[in-house]
């Protein structure tokens, strides 16, 4: 999950890894922060497996959530995304990311993530959790109707990962 610093990419990665663990899967989560609090790229990597994980960093991505143009441009090279499998699930915010990926190469899902957070929930700050909701639904399409991680596991992960006063807002954002 990658975006500009301040977009909650790392919290989203923590929620994703926690949700995977709720499913009984193995998961690791690592983070890379931009140089400043509200500028630069922020990246939360999650490795999920049904077997023990030997190396905590992803080597070739099966899915990526891109929340900003700066993040997209940092990953984009020669018409492809760096370190990303062909046919990977790529979720982008359609209002914030001008995506030129070949949709025959990647499974691109473009959704109004930040706008939904702002207009429906009144808080753009939960765009990261809205993105996880898009991810959850998109994986159910990619994996023939069964999501990689259930809605229930994501909701439990939100309860464990988000400050108590923001749990209800984040659950609404996810749903």
Structure description:
By secondary structure, the protein is an alpha/beta fold. It is built from six helices and eight strands. It has helices at 9-22, 69-75, 113-121, 127-142, 151-161, 167-174, and strands at 2-4, 26-32, 41-49, 61-66, 76-77, 80-81, 84-93, 107-111. The strands form three sheets. It has a three-stranded antiparallel beta sheet, sandwiched between helices. α1 packs across α5 (151-161). The chain is globular. The two termini are 19 Å apart.
What is the number of E strands? 8
Q: For the CA atoms, what is the radius of gyration? A: 15 Å
Give the biggest beta sheet: 3 strands, antiparallel
Mean pLDDT: 91
Order of helices and strands: EHEEEHEEEEHHHH
Shape: globular
- Considering DSSP H and I runs of 4 or more, what fraction of the residues is helical? 25-40%
Number of helices: 6
Question: TL;DR of this structure?
Answer:
With 175 residues, this protein is α/β, with parallel strands linked by helices. The protein has helices spanning 9-22, 69-75, 113-121, 127-142, 151-161, 167-174; strands at 2-4, 26-32, 41-49, 61-66, 76-77, 80-81, 84-93, 107-111. Helix content is 37%, strand content 25%.
What secondary-structure arrangement, pairings included, does this model have?
Layout: E1 2-4, H1 9-22, E2 26-32, E3 41-49, E4 61-66, H2 69-75, E5 76-77, E6 80-81, E7 84-93, E8 107-111, H3 113-121, H4 127-142, H5 151-161, H6 167-174
């Amino acid at each position: 999950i990658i975006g500009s610093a301040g977009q909650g990419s790392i919290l989203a990665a923590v929620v994703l890894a926690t949700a995977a663990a709720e499913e009984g899967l193995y998961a690791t989560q690592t983070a890379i922060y931009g140089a400043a609090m509200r500028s630069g790229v922020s990246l939360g990597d999650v490795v999920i497996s049904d077997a023990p994980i030997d190396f905590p960093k992803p080597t070739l991505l099966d899915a990526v959530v891109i929340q900003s143009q700066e993040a997209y441009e940092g990953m984009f090279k020669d018409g492809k995304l760096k370190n990303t499998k062909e046919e990977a699930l790529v979720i982008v915010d359609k209002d914030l990311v001008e995506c030129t990926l070949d949709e025959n190469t990647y499974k691109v899902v473009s959704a109004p993530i930040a706008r939904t957070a702002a207009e429906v929930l009144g808080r753009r700050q939960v765009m990261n959790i809205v993105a996880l909701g898009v991810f959850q639904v998109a994986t159910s399409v990619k994996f023939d109707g069964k999501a990689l991680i259930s809605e229930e596991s994501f909701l439990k992960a939100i309860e464990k990962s988000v400050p108590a006063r923001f749990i209800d807002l984040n659950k609404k954002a996810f749903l």
